[in-house]
Amino acid sequence: MLIGFFGQLKSIPQQTVIQTSVSREKLSSVYTSLGAVSTGMFGLASLAMGIAADLIGVRAVFVISAVFLGWASLLVFKHKPLFAMNAE
Question: pLDDT tens-digit profile of 2-27?
């Protein structure tokens, strides 16, 4: 439950920043690049988390993931001005 909650707190501002700071002409290229990087990172993270789950247990891996997502969410809220849209 915590992972889903913090995941959304991270994803919504991230998508908003991308959509408001990239021109429409380049938006598809940016999303394609992000998708390629995300897919590669998902494979590496799955491997790392699989090894971690074998070593410390599945529950611990989920708690660690929730902590990292919570930390990322707090960073976004702490640095809100960096994510503010320019009113032009």
Answer: 667 767 777 777 788 788 888 888 98
Amino acid letter for position 68: F
Confirm if 17 and 31 have CB atoms less than 8 A apart. no
Tell me the DSSP string of the chain.
-HHHHHHHHHHHHHHHHHHHHS-HHHHHHHHHHHHHHHHHHHHHHHHHHHHHHHHH-HHHHHHHHHHHHHHHHHHHHHTGGGGPPP--
Whether the Cβ atoms of residue 47 and residue 40 lie closer than 8 Å to each other: no
The pTM of the full predicted model, rounded to 2 decimals, is 0.57
